[in-house]
């Protein structure tokens, strides 16, 4: 028999009360909780680099991945996070099942809830979908992206990547560039980074900027060079290609010319700049391969690694609360 | 159903048509208002008169709501003419105009006749159909406006769907004018509005909701006013909800365009922040606006720039509302809450009671040529007796509509309907 599993507090080395039942929005968190989650995630990064990666913090628990939008990356990240903590993981893809037979989101959730999962990870194309589900089920709900609203675990993993690269987040100057209008990654990142004391800028053409984005507490730029001037971090957002066919931008080549990140434009940023991207990338559209693949500036691979650790931290924190119920 | 004459005494008579807001009594005989006594109580009523002591409650003409949707024909589980009529009666609304966007659409005289016959059988409130302006509400070819008028439709409209083709709309206005038929049109630029669930601004941006700028309302309203001016036709502007469109309306009215404007009680009562955590009961069409627009709309109501308030009653069952915000059906039920919600502006001291009541009684009656909507000798005894001061908490379980999608759920309002009469018949009496 193995030794008894270490609890969350043993992993973290101190007590960590996490009072939330769901993980829906960055807005629900406070800086202390975020700091604890990042510390916890740091510990899991170390674990994930060992040969034996498995804990049984979540032993006996069931995690369901419910992805109404396809996402290989996020879904497998949550799957690995759950498995490494010892949970049983089930992947549901409603696209190919009953939801396409006219069952509503709520019906699907209530049905799955009756199977007694402990953690439900949801991605949906509609803003507010995760919050709606959380009102109707008895398990913990984790928002893995709801429409154009939030993607809180992405913001957490981005913060983790930045903190590991710079040793801090407060005082960093971060430019979030591209399609801010449609980006849940941008909304979660703006909220989290501002909470942690970073200076956040938004950069993109006016057609891809939300109305009154200047009231988000971030300076808005329509010129990439000026926007990233002196920035410690340049975070590029994914742009859906169909939006660039004269709809929101005239063409891919024009977009890349003005808003694509290449070496030459990147020179406007701080000398020690790090480049990030939530993936998947459109190479040659929003980012040049030359920059994306340069491991001396690019944190893009790190972000994927941090994703698993950050999600482990969220799962562990939520299940610690379950233990207290 | 009593044939005995009824006298209401000790009432606060509120009659916008005559401008009287004060104590008085009113006699109902044979379904008509037989006498109105302003001031002192009548003496020497004969013994066969049933006397109702109003105890100071407001006695006013029953409300006329000219924008009501039901699900009949075609979507009866949502709402039937009867359930809507029950809700109307309980809300002190004695005449409703039902919208033509049913299945099938009310775009020919036979369907107009169907609605009228159903309403007669139900025998509650007056139900009048609005006819479709274009066949199948497609915005392409005119519906049979003259025949529908003769069958009994009160005006024509394509309801929520703007008639995009300006040539079609111009001809429609010209043709309808020849028949003396009023045309209602929703001012909304269809391209800017496409897919929108909220009003553009900081709130919608943060919430990640597809949104429409308020200018979409102004753009279409400017076109409509220009075409109404060109043709000399009467135009009913179906819900003005933004400050920028109100500017256009004011200018249009000032230069003599024959435009009458409505707004909905929802846009007077809520702003976008009420959406909160994606509450789909706050999803309307047009979408709920920002506070600046709400305030401008209330102000326009106070000055009379907006003529008429509608409930914009639009039932949507739970399965159409228990969805993510962008997928949920728009609309709110409102027949039962229209009067108390409107009274909020009286209680706040913002708009005089008689002016508020005008927007839901005499003004719509004049516009539609109805004999109701006034406390005058010989007018139909369509009346509401309302205890103005009585508090209430809106409870979905009390709603008579088949659908319970009320954004007023849980709201504290003041003004309880005690009695509703239609043609002298009691159609609602509070327990």
Lay out the secondary structure:
The complex is a heterodimer of chains A (325) and B (431).
Chain A: H1 8-12, H2 31-48, E1 62-67, H3 72-84, E2 88-92, H4 105-113, E3 119-124, H5 129-134, E4 140-146, H6 152-166, E5 173-177, H7 184-195, E6 199-203, E7 219-221, H8 224-227, E8 233-236, H9 252-259, H10 263-266, E9 274-276, H11 289-292, H12 300-324
Parallel strand pairs in A: 1-2, 1-3, 3-4, 5-6, 5-8, 6-7, 8-9
Chain B: E1 6-15, E2 20-29, E3 32-38, E4 50-53, E5 58-61, E6 63-68, H1 81-90, E7 93-98, H2 109-122, E8 126-129, E9 131-132, H3 145-151, E10 156-157, H4 166-178, E11 183-185, H5 190-193, E12 198-199, H6 202-207, E13 211-212, H7 215-231, E14 235-237, H8 243-254, E15 259-264, H9 265-269, H10 291-303, E16 308-310, H11 318-321, H12 338-347, H13 353-358, H14 362-368, E17 383-393, E18 412-422, E19 425-429
Parallel strand pairs in B: 1-4, 1-5, 6-7, 7-8, 9-10, 10-11, 11-14, 12-13, 14-15, 15-16
Antiparallel strand pairs in B: 1-2, 2-3, 5-17, 17-18, 18-19
Helix pairs in contact in B: 2-3, 4-7, 7-8
Verbal overview:
The complex is a heterodimer of chains A (325) and B (431). With 325 residues, chain A is of the alpha/beta class. In chain A, 38% of the residues lie in helices and 14% in strands. In chain A, helix 2 crosses helix 12. The model of chain A has no long low-confidence stretch (mean pLDDT 90). With 431 residues, chain B is of the alpha/beta class. Chain B has helices spanning 81-90, 109-122, 145-151, 166-178, 190-193, 202-207, 215-231, 243-254, 265-269, 291-303, 318-321, 338-347, 353-358, 362-368, and strands at 6-15, 20-29, 32-38, 50-53, 58-61, 63-68, 93-98, 126-129, 131-132, 156-157, 183-185, 198-199, 211-212, 235-237, 259-264, 308-310, 383-393, 412-422, 425-429. Classes of the chains: A alpha/beta (325), B alpha/beta (431).
Summary, kept brief:
The complex is a heterodimer of chains A (325) and B (431). Chain A is of the alpha/beta class and 325 residues long.
């Amino acid at each position: 028999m193995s030794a008894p599993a270490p609890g969350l507090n043993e992993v973290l080395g101190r007590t960590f009360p996490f009072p939330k039942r769901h993980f829906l929005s960055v807005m629900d968190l406070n800086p202390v909780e975020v700091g604890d989650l990042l510390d916890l995630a740091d510990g899991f990064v170390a674990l994930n680099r060992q040969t034996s990666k498995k804990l049984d913090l979540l032993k006996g628990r069931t995690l369901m991945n419910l992805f109404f939008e396809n996402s290989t990356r996020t879904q497998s990240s949550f799957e690995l996070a759950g498995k490494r903590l010892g949970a049983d993981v089930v992947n549901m893809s409603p696209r190919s099942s009953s939801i396409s037979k006219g069952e509503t989101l709520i019906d699907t959730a209530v049905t799955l809830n009756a199977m007694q999962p402990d953690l439900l990870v949801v991605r949906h194309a509609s803003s507010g979908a995760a919050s709606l589900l959380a009102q109707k089920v008895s398990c913990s709900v984790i928002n893995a992206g709801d429409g154009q609203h939030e993607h809180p675990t992405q913001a957490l993993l981005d913060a983790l990547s930045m903190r590991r690269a710079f040793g801090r987040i407060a005082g960093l100057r971060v430019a979030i560039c591209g399609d801010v209008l449609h980006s849940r990654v941008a909304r979660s990142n703006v909220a989290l980074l501002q909470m942690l004391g970073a200076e956040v800028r938004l950069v993109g053409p006016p057609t891809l900027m939300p109305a009154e984005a200047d009231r988000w507490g971030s300076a808005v730029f329509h010129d990439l060079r000026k926007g990233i001037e002196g920035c410690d971090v340049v975070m590029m957002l994914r742009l859906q290609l169909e939006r660039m066919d004269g709809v929101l931008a005239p063409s891919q080549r024009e977009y890349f010319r003005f808003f694509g990140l290449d070496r030459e434009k990147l020179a406007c940023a701080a000398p020690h700049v790090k480049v990030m991207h939530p993936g998947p990338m459109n190479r040659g559209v929003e980012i040049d391969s030359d920059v994306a693949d340069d491991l001396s500036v690019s944190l893009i691979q790190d972000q994927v690694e941090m994703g698993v650790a950050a999600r482990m931290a969220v799962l562990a924190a939520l299940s610690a609360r379950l233990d207290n119920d | 159903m009593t044939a005995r004459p009824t006298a209401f005494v000790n009432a606060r008579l509120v009659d916008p048509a005559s401008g009287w807001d004060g104590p008085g009594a009113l006699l109902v005989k044979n379904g008509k208002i037989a006498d109105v006594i302003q001031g002192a109580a009548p003496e020497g009523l004969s013994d066969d008169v049933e006397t109702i002591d109003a105890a100071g409650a407001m006695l006013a003409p029953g409300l006329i709501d000219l924008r009501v949707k039901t699900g009949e024909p075609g979507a009866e589980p949502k709402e039937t003419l009867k359930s809507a009529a029950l809700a109307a009666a309980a809300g002190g609304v004695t005449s409703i105009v039902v919208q033509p966007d049913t299945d099938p659409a009310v775009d020919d005289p036979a369907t107009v006749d169907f609605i009228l016959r159903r309403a007669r059988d139900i025998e509650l409130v007056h139900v009048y159909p609005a006819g479709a302006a274009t066949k199948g509400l497609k915005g392409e070819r005119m519906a049979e406006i003259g025949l529908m008028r003769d069958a009994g439709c009160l005006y024509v409209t394509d309801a929520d769907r703007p008639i995009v083709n300006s040539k079609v709309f111009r001809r429609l206005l010209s043709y309808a004018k020849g028949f003396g038929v009023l045309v209602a049109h929703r001012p909304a630029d269809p391209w800017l509005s496409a897919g929108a669930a909220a009003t553009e601004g900081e709130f919608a941006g943060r919430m990640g909701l597809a949104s429409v700028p308020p200018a979409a309302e102004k753009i279409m309203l400017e076109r409509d006013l220009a075409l109404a001016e060109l043709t000399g036709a009467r135009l009913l502007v179906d819900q003005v909800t933004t400050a920028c469109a109100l500017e256009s309306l004011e200018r249009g009215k000032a230069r003599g365009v024959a435009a009458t404007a409505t707004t909905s009680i929802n846009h007077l009562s809520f702003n976008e922040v009420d959406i909160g955590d994606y509450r789909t009961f706050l999803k309307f069409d047009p979408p709920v606006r920002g506070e600046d627009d709400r305030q401008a709309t209330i102000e326009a109501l106070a000055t009379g720039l907006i003529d008429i308030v509608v409930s914009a009653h639009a039932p949507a069952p739970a399965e159409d509302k228990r969805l993510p915000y962008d997928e949920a059906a728009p609309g709110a039920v409102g027949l039962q809450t229209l009067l108390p919600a409107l009274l909020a502006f009286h209680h706040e001291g913002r708009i005089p009671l008689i002016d508020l009541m005008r927007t839901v009684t005499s003004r719509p009656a004049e516009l539609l040529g109805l004999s109701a909507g006034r406390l005058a000798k010989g007018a139909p005894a369509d009346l509401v007796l309302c205890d103005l001061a009585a508090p209430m908490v809106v409870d979905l379980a009390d709603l008579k509509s088949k659908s319970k999608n009320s954004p007023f759920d849980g709201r504290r309002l003041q003004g309880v309907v005690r009695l509703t009469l239609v043609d002298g018949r009691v159609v609602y009496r509070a327990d």
